[in-house]
Design brief:
By secondary structure, the protein is α+β, with helices and mostly antiparallel strands. Helix content is 41%, strand content 22%. The strands form 3 sheets. It has a 5-stranded mixed beta sheet. Strands 9, 10, 11, 12 and 13 form a 5-stranded antiparallel beta sheet that branches. Strands 3-2-4 form a 3-stranded mixed beta sheet. Strand 7, helix 6 and strand 8 form a beta-alpha-beta unit. Helix 4 packs antiparallel against helix 5, helix 10 packs across helix 11 and helix 12 runs antiparallel to helix 13. It is globular. It binds magnesium ion. GO terms for molecular function: damaged DNA binding; DNA-directed DNA polymerase activity; magnesium ion binding. InterPro entries: DNA/RNA_pol_sf (IPR043502), DNA_pol_Y-fam_lit_finger_sf (IPR036775), DNA_pol_Y-fam_little_finger (IPR017961), DNA_polymerase-Y (IPR050116), DNApol_IV (IPR022880), PolY_HhH_motif (IPR024728), Rev_trsase/Diguanyl_cyclase (IPR043128), UmuC (IPR001126). Its main location: cytoplasm. One of its GO terms (cellular component) is cytosol.
Amino acid sequence: MESNLRKIIHIDMDAFYASVEQRDHVEYRGKPLIVGGSPHSRGVVATCSYEARRYGIHSAMPASMAHRLCPHAIFVKPRMDVYRQVSRDIMSICKAHTDLVEPLSLDEAFLDVTHHRRGMASGTLIAREIKQQIYEVTGLTASAGVSYNKLIAKIASDDHKPNGLTVITPEKAQAFLDAVPIGRFFGIGKVTEQKLSLLGVHTGSDLRRLSREQLIQLFSDRGRVFYDLVRGIDPRPVLPNRIRQSIGKETTFQVDMDDIDDMLSQLMLLAQTIEQQLRNRSVTGRVVVLKIKFANFQQITRRTTTHIPVQSAQDIYDYVQSLLNQVYIDTKVRLLGITVQKLESAQDPLVQMETGEQLTLF
Ligand SMILES: [Mg+2]
């Protein structure tokens, strides 16, 4: 790999909950095992063993359907406290290699090992060592994908499951992505997949034949992202620790205020400070909150959910201005504050579109 490229590893445990159960219960080993739901309930499959997958059973499938597909499958209740403990062990193994560990769920994480803690240079060897350590500590297998960005590392980790290790170098990346079914790209969920499939687009190479203009026409801003993804372009950083959930700023006035224009110009100043902090952390927000404390110390907050993720002072200001307009102010104001909540990574439009798509699905 070129030295200026990042080294990203995606670690993903194999059939995590089911593997923990098979580890802890000899009698489940080698059997179709389903964690979550029960044969005649309305619940869904959380995870199932590889033996169960051979019957076509998969996560999120209704338990009753899983039971029809494989009547002798064993159903067990999830033991979340056990999975959480195992997850802590896995994450601490990862963190021994780099500070840049971004957990995606209990059994999945991105690592940026460009600057490895012990100076190991090969992403492949680092991934192999992590897999080995996970096995020694937990008795469970993980699959790993190694590449120069999150997108490719994640698709790669899924390529040779279970117990896989897939390395995609920049030279191999385009051919690899060309062969990937589009549903495996971040941000392409069921709805988008169907829409594209009607256009004869099934794989990365099909998708790459669409021009940027066509993609934007079909999917607006998401089209832009698809255009990059299918070419292996994904600058999203690995973000360690979940980001702080809100950013806020407030001002108490020397002299209580009763002029709306004065309040608005104070709010613009606050919005500018918040924009700076959002930018510094590369995040956007989904909820804007206005706080008003009156001269009599009575305090109110008003909040709004934004249509699009906000970061700019102007956008934040527009929202708080309309919130302020809805407040009946009959006494002087001593404090104004703005908080932006529901933060998400600004470089991660994919996460946003995944969420958006799920909302339309349900
Ligand atoms: Mg997994």
